[in-house]
Design goal:
It contains two helices and two strands, in the order E-E-H-H. By secondary structure, it is of the alpha+beta class. It has one domain. The N terminus is likely disordered.
Length: 80
């Protein structure tokens, strides 16, 4: 394994390239589930499929905090 760096919103973290790929895959999977969940809930409230409007709503309202939370959890996992 080669060590590498990836950039987070809070700076640079050193990890292996494999870990970065795993983190990205996991991040995207969890993020997609959260977006789909938000889309479903908001569409149910509206009584119609909101589609991309609900996706954009999630991005505007929750994407930053989701990213921060994911990075924080990953950092704790690495130190444990």
């Amino acid at each position: 394994m080669h060590s590498g760096r990836y950039y987070t919103r809070r700076g640079i973290s050193t990890t292996t390239v494999v870990d970065v790929k795993m983190d990205l895959k996991q991040y995207l999977e969890v993020q997609t589930r959260e977006i789909e969940r938000h889309k479903w809930i908001e569409s149910e409230k509206a009584g119609r499929d909101l589609g991309m409007d609900a996706v954009i709503d999630w991005i505007v309202k929750y994407a930053d905090s989701f990213c921060d939370h994911f990075i924080q959890e990953r950092s704790q996992d690495l130190t444990d």
